[in-house]
Write a structure and sequence with these properties.
Blueprint lengths: L20 E5 L5 E3 L4 E3 L1 H9 L4 E5 L7 H14 L7 H10 L5 H25 L5 H47 L5
Parallel strand pairs: 1-4
Antiparallel strand pairs: 1-2, 2-3
Helix pairs in contact: 1-2
């Protein structure tokens, strides 16, 4: 009976998962892709994001993880060039959550809602395969009011659930504090 050995995963790579690409950021602000052994631009890092390629950006000297700051820089460039996704009001409201007791919840809330939107978008794309770009444009114009209504309904439900969660947390907090003899 012969056995076939499977090679062990490389360092930083787990079974069944591709390893994360490492990009080093140097003091001169240049980005170096260790996989391709070449300097890359922010636009090329954006392409990695678009292709869903897992990567980490590390400071070349300290090893500090800079991935979030690079992603924020990409968002800033996208917002500055052309059609911004966020209004000033949305950005101001996001800033107001920093340091607020609900900051941790807000991040998770946004993440789940963006994920739900991505799933809806993927489902719509799957169902509309074979449409020409012109037909796709017509479909989106026809469905725009319907999509806006559907998203509005979804957001209203989400808001109501969030308010219920907030009320439930307030009741539970009062119960816990009451158990310790603390009254508000």
């Amino acid at each position: 009976m012969s056995r076939t050995r499977t090679p062990a995963p490389a360092a930083g790579e787990s079974k069944g998962k591709p390893s994360r690409r490492v990009i080093k950021k140097y003091p001169n602000r240049r980005l170096y892709d260790t996989e391709s052994s070449a300097y890359v631009t922010l636009a090329q890092v954006r392409e990695l994001v678009m292709k869903r390629t897992p990567f980490t950006v590390r400071d070349a000297k300290t090893g500090e993880d800079l991935t979030r700051s690079i992603l924020l820089q990409i968002i800033l460039e996208e917002e500055a060039g052309g059609a911004p996704m966020f209004t000033e009001a949305v950005l101001a409201n996001i800033i107001r959550f920093y340091g607020h007791a609900m900051q941790g919840f807000m991040g998770a809330y946004l993440e789940k809602n963006v994920q739900a939107f991505m799933e809806i978008q993927a489902k719509l794309a799957e169902q509309s395969q074979g449409l020409s770009p012109e037909m796709w444009t017509q479909l989106m114009h026809m469905q725009s009011p319907m999509m806006q209504g559907m998203m509005g309904s979804y957001l209203e439900q989400s808001k109501n659930m969030f308010l219920q969660l907030q009320e439930q947390m307030a009741r539970q907090t009062e119960q816990v504090l009451g158990a310790f003899g603390v009254k508000r």
